[in-house]
Fold:
Amino acid sequence: MHQLFRLVLGQKDLSRAGDLFSLDDSEIEDSLTEALEQIKIISSSSDYQTNNNDQAVVEICITRITTAIRETESIEKHAKALVGLWDSCLEHNLRPFGKDEDTPHAKIASDIMSCILQNYNRPPVMALAIPIAVKFLHRGNKELCRNMSNYLSLAAITKADLLADHTEVIVKSILQGMVQKLSLGTCFRRHLKVFSSICGLWEERPRVLEAS
Structure:
């Protein structure tokens, strides 16, 4: 791992975190997976939700990492670590505090989501991401639900077979009425858009599986 990442994440040094943006993307690209794994350790600590310093360090580092991934087009190389950190957010509370104030782990999930799911046209990335993405539909966070549904709609259009195994989860999310708690049906309409893209595929699932 690059020495500056090692310093910032190892010592949780907020004063040096901004210096990461002075480095070229190519200079830190090989360090991104290891940095993501270190962030996962930090964000999983028992006091993370109350530690403002650690949260700020993680937020800055994730911004730097996702920027470098986009600029170097290295999402497939780092997708496993990125999705692993994303998945770890599901182990924590994602429901907003007070009026639309995201929890620390909801912020991480949101920051990572676009970096992963903007690559909806890359099947290897989506194969890792979609099983995790659908789980966020059940976690009671309006903004995450809305954005996740948008990205899943795009994934369903370009590579519907990757969503076929998750039709039941998406339908259950609709039927449980969770969306009544989320923006008066906005998520409901997006869920239906995803569902309508794959419902025909579900009926033809044996042929899809044979083809794959």
User: Anything to note?
Assistant: Confidence is low (pLDDT under 50) at residues 177-186, 204-212. The first helix runs from residue 3 to 11. The CA atoms of residues 37 and 173 lie 31 Å apart. The two ends are 37 Å apart (CA to CA).
